[in-house]
């Protein structure tokens, strides 16, 4: 029976199970296969099934970024003559948010399109939230949100405001909330989940902001952290997830009844095999994408990123960090997207704004293109 005589849903399921080399070979068999395999949304689905690649850069910025394609523990590093220090501030749905020389840049490495946005009022890296929404099957839009903190009207209160950009300009949201003071966790990136951005505070409460409606609120959650435990806020398939890890165990908690009676409910206990009973100089909980928990373990010889697969219930090495890397990393679990993104411009035809940066800020452009090429080269299917 010919492949193209099968129902479309079966054709797609077979293609999704192929390795990348076989996937490309199937494209060459007939026009039907070529049409399916070149569809941007199907390519995104294909790679999402393969798991997450790893993208990381030093927390204090660097001229070099590193990328580990899914299934390859080796680090591939960006190359180029750039003299600019880059920060990677966020990742969401295939797009990355870069900060370089006083500018944000939103980039899609797979389509090689990007946009620079000038912004010079960032209080800290962790104050920046990055949101990407799928408008339809082939189109995305993004928003960047910067949370600001001011002293409240009463002693012991903090007032939060929000600066928002959808790519064309920045505006100050009319939304402000005032609540009891507690520092935002500067060691933790905000999380985008089901249309909302979430910042964890030191007292375990959460500030949330909905970019679409510009509504904000305080979620007064409580959590009894074990002494010495490391925390990470992430997004699971159906809930916000808080990871609390000790040298012996990793605990996963889901936030239930988030807007009525929020409570952290224990959902998983995992033995922390990469760390337990080992002589390490340091270790970190680095990421969670709903399926894999990442733990980085560093000793005198090697610096390794381990991933725990929640479905397979196993630990495995997913990346080896270069010896020259910083002790602290901003690490992201990357899945590609071929969607068209409102506002992003082709690198070879960027319009007046991109021409401005090409002429007067060429190093910014070189740096962004090096990071995009670092990722793009591994998804040429």
DSSP strand tally: 27
Number of helices: 6
The helix content, as a percent range, equals 10-25%
Shape: globular
The radius of gyration over CA amounts to: 21 Å
Report what the structure shows.
This protein has 381 residues and is of the alpha+beta class. 16% of the residues lie in helices and 42% in strands. The strands form 6 sheets. Strands 8, 9, 10, 11, 12 and 26 form a 6-stranded mixed sheet that branches. A hairpin with a 2-residue loop joins strand 5 and strand 6. Helix 5 crosses helix 6. The longest helix has 15 residues. The two termini are 26 Å apart. About 3% of the residues have low confidence.
Set out the fold topology.
Blueprint: H1 8-16, H2 20-27, H3 31-38, H4 40-49, E1 53-58, E2 66-68, E3 76-77, E4 86-92, E5 95-100, E6 103-108, E7 113-118, E8 128-136, E9 139-151, E10 157-165, E11 170-172, E12 177-180, E13 191-193, E14 196-200, E15 206-210, E16 215-219, E17 230-235, E18 240-245, E19 249-256, E20 263-271, E21 282-288, E22 292-298, E23 303-309, E24 314-320, E25 329-334, E26 340-341, E27 345-346, H5 351-360, H6 362-376
Q: What is this entry, summarized?
A:
This is F-box domain-containing protein. This protein has helices at 8-16, 20-27, 31-38, 40-49, 351-360, 362-376; strands at residues 53-58, 66-68, 76-77, 86-92, 95-100, 103-108, 113-118, 128-136, 139-151, 157-165, 170-172, 177-180, 191-193, 196-200, 206-210, 215-219, 230-235, 240-245, 249-256, 263-271, 282-288, 292-298, 303-309, 314-320, 329-334, 340-341, 345-346.
């Amino acid at each position: 029976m010919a492949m193209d005589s099968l129902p479309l849903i079966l054709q797609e399921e077979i293609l999704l199970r192929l390795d990348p080399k076989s996937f490309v070979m199937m494209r060459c068999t007939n026009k039907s296969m070529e049409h399916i395999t070149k569809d941007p949304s199907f390519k995104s689905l294909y790679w999402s099934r393969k798991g997450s690649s790893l993208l990381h850069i030093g927390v204090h910025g660097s001229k070099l970024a590193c990328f580990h394609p899914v299934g390859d523990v080796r680090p591939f590093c960006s190359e180029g003559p750039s003299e600019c220090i880059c920060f990677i501030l966020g990742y969401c749905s295939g797009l990355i948010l870069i900060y370089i020389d006083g500018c944000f840049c939103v980039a899609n490495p797979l389509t090689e399109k990007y946009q620079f946005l000038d912004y010079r009022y960032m209080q800290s890296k962790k104050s920046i939230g990055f949101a990407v929404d799928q408008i339809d099957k082939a189109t995305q839009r993004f928003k960047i949100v910067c949370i600001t903190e001011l002293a409240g009207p009463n002693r012991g209160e903090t007032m939060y405001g929000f600066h928002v950009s959808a790519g064309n300009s920045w505006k100050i949201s009319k939304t402000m909330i005032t609540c009891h003071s507690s520092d935002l966790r500067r060691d933790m990136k905000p999380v985008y989940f089901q249309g909302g951005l979430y910042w964890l505070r030191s007292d375990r409460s959460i500030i949330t902001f909905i970019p679409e409606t510009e509504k904000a609120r305080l979620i007064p959650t409580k959590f009894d952290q074990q002494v010495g435990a490391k925390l990470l806020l992430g997004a699971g398939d159906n809930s916000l997830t808080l990871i609390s890890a000790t040298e012996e165990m990793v605990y996963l908690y889901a936030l239930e009844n988030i807007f009525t009676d929020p409570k952290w409910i224990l959902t998983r206990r995992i033995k922390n095999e990469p760390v337990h009973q080992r002589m390490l100089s340091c270790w970190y909980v680095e990421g969670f994408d709903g399926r894999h928990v990442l733990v980085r373990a560093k000793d005198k010889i090697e610096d390794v990123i381990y991933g725990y697969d929640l479905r397979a219930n196993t630990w495995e090495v997913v990346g080896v960090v270069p010896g020259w890397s910083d002790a602290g990393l901003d690490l992201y679990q990357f899945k590609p997207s071929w969607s068209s993104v409102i506002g992003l411009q082709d690198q070879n035809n960027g319009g007046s704004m991109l021409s401005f940066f090409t002429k007067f800020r060429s190093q910014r452009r070189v740096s962004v293109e090096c990071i995009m090429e670092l990722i793009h080269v591994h998804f040429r299917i």
